[in-house]
Write a structure and sequence with these properties.
heterodimer; A: 80 residues; Non-ribosomal Peptide Synthetase Peptidyl Carrier Protein, Chain A; B: 571 residues; alpha/beta; Rossmann fold; nine-stranded mixed beta sheet
Chain lengths: 80, 571
């Protein structure tokens, strides 16, 4: 696991998991019901704040946010 | 092209007779009889010869599927009811259902009603504070939940002395049970065939749904078993549910749509319904409709707008020709959505209007009736609806005049009170009319046109959020000195929550703090209540008496005239 994957995975577990549900970098987050569309807003805000990027709304789709790996792919597009 | 015969037939003809009497006749119910919603949804359907008909097609993540016949939901509800009785749950005790959209939520709801207890479904994304407020107010005795949600309950049980049992439906036997927890597995339990459903009557309480207002804490709307009379016939005529239909109501039973039209109405009509417990994805939704050949679909404007955003090309990848009639609820359905659905599905979404307090559909666009895109439609046959003057509460006679939406009290599913809040309940009735809290006009043809709420309640994605509740929670954040919460326009959700805050000394505005505040509210209250925008201000607009003038902030967000600010305190 690289540093970005770890940071994002740790954040998801800390913020969205209340019990000992196992979450990996490929666990479906949106389609799996772990992060709903409203909570996605705070996740997007975290990524933008952490990586000092701005993710356009049309790129911040449920599909693009559906796993830690997919999120990393998206973030890397905008990180200089 | 096949001709589809609708249940309602001619709307004008239906106006001539009593819908409620017809409903009672079809249900085989006479005034004074025993009436239990869960019995009507299960035992009666089996007695009508449909025991082996599929009642529920449930799909979870990864396409994991379960099916239940009406006999199986009868057995399951008996089994759950028996278990609850063994825990000494008595008639009129409140039993909360705090689960994702899993089968146990639907079957547990029926089990609670079968023993005459009061079902209190709560949205599973509620944070511990939102949960506490509602369980405390209701004096809830038991919660049926999943292990993933049980931790939130453990955080608050010390403040809930009435809460005796936390029933975990998916307990991991290798882990110890925590205080007040008990494990119950529907699959492992011995099915109960012979069961004496509690003999509830028309006015026996059935359900408590919590709804948010502008001021104060959320209110428990109390419904009774005779609400079935309205739910049955409104579903039959408005949603057009027919014997061979496959029906999909996308609403979560934590909200009233998910109980009235996600459990009670379809099953009392003996209809097969499908439920998907997977997060939103346009592709998955279309796949679901195609797979199960959904014919009748009851959804919400936020979801429809999300589908619009996903694009028309995606729709073409699926065979959605099974769809016959589409309906919508929760917020006003914008005309673009009506036009779009006609274009991509070949059928328009029909808007319906009602509330937690009304228990059933009150105003709607009916099958076969001309739709005016953007209009709420016409009053359901049997409902007397009008708009009244906000000062005198007299009905307006002139078409096009904006007033408060009002209904003549007495329809079967009208709420009976707000739990422990009779005074607020009485305040909903003025001059012999029930006031919905919304503003609208009526045109010359009797179509209602929604204008807005009459108060500060925020309607986000079809769910009401109280600015007071959010403001109160914000004040518990260490950095926040004062707060004001208003709605902000949103393309998909119609409105989202925005918070204006002043900071305590020692705190500086920053994006990190904004995120911290957002997450604080999301976990304390719910993702819906989470401000999607936090603006730091030096001071909030207030009257000379110190009252925060939310409407000034609201007007700025919506680009409206801020109106009379003569009472605004000057710095």
């Amino acid at each position: 696991m690289n540093e970005m994957q770890k940071i994002i995975l740790d954040y998801v577990i800390a913020e969205y998991i209340d019990d000992d549900t196992e979450v990996t970098v490929d666990t479906p987050l949106i389609s799996g019901g772990i992060v709903d569309s409203f909570s996605m807003v705070s996740l997007k805000r975290f990524l933008e704040t952490k990586y000092k990027i701005s993710i356009p709304d049309d790129k911040a789709t449920p599909e693009a946010f559906d796993s830690v790996n997919k999120i990393c792919t998206l973030v890397q597009v905008f990180v200089k | 092209m096949s001709h589809h015969t609708t249940n309602i037939g001619s709307y004008e003809e239906r106006l001539k007779n009593s819908s409620w009497e017809l409903s009672k006749k079809e249900l085989g119910y006479k005034d004074g009889d025993v009436i239990n919603i869960a019995w009507y949804c299960t035992d009666r359907i089996c007695e009508m010869g449909k025991a082996n008909k599929t009642a529920l097609i449930w799909e979870g993540l990864g396409g994991h599927e379960k099916k239940y016949t009406f006999n199986e939901i009868r057995l399951a509800s008996n089994t759950i009811g028996t278990y609850l009785k063994s825990l000494d749950i008595k008639p009129e005790d409140r039993v909360c259902l705090f689960m994702d959209k899993i089968p146990e939520l639907y079957l547990g709801f029926l089990g609670v009603l079968k023993i005459g207890a009061i079902a209190q479904p709560l949205f599973s994304a509620f944070g511990d504070e939102s949960l506490f407020v509602r369980l405390d107010n209701a004096g809830t005795k038991a919660v049926i939940t999943q292990k993933k949600h049980a931790t939130k309950l453990q955080k608050i049980i010390d403040r809930l002395p009435n809460l005796k049992h936390i029933i975990i439906v998916d307990h991991d036997p290798t882990k110890p049970l925590r205080p007040r927890e008990v494990a119950f597995s529907l699959e492992a339990a011995k099915p109960v065939d012979k069961f004496d459903t509690y003999p509830t009557k028309a006015e026996s309480p059935s359900l408590l749904h919590y709804t948010s207002g502008t001021t104060g804490q959320p209110k428990g709307v109390k419904h009774v078993h005779s609400s079935l009379i309205a739910q049955y016939i409104t579903a039959k005529w408005t949603l057009d549910l027919q014997d061979n239909d496959i029906y999909w109501c996308t609403a979560d039973p934590g909200w009233v749509t998910g109980t009235s039209y996600g459990i009670i109405a379809p099953w009392s009509l003996g209809i097969t319904q499908c439920v998907m417990d997977v997060g939103f994805s346009a592709e998955k939704w279309y796949e679901f409709i195609q797979k199960h050949k959904v014919t009748k679909w009851y959804s919400a404007p936020t979801a429809i707008r999300s589908l619009m955003k996903a694009g028309d090309e995606l729709v073409k990848k699926f065979d959605l020709s099974s769809l016959v009639h589409l309906t919508s609820v929760g917020e006003p359905l914008n005309s673009e959505a009506v036009v779009w659905s006609q274009k991509v599905f070949g059928k328009p979404f029909h808007d319906t209007f009602w509330q937690t307090e009304t228990g059933a559909i009150m105003i709607a666009n009916y099958p076969g009736m001309k739709i005016k895109p953007g209009s709420m439609g016409k009053a359901f046959p049997g409902i007397t609806a009008t708009v009244v003057d906000p000062e005198t509460f007299e009905p307006y006679k002139e078409p096009g005049k904006i007033g408060l939406i009002a209904f003549k009290p007495g329809w079967p599913s009208m709420m009976r009170t707000y739990w422990n809040n009779e005074e607020t309940y009485k305040g909903k009735f003025k001059n012999g009319w029930y006031l919905s809290g919304d503003r609208s006009s009526i045109d010359k043809e009797g179509y209602f046109w929604f204008v807005g709420r009459d108060d500060d309640v925020i309607n986000t994605a079809g769910h009401l959020v109280s600015p007071f509740e959010v403001e109160s929670a914000l004040l518990e954040h260490p950095a926040v000195a004062e707060s004001a919460v208003v709605s902000k326009p949103d393309e998909v959700n119609m409105e989202v929550v925005k918070a204006f805050i002043t900071l305590k000394p020692g705190y500086q505005p920053s994006k990190e703090l904004e995120l911290d505040i957002m997450n604080f509210i999301r976990k304390k209250l719910s993702p819906l209540a989470m401000p999607q925008d936090v603006e730091y201000v030096d001071s909030l607009p207030k009257t000379r008496s110190g009252k925060i003038m939310r409407r000034v902030l609201h007007a700025k967000e919506w680009g409206e005239d801020i109106g009379d600010i003569s009472t605004l305190e000057n710095d």
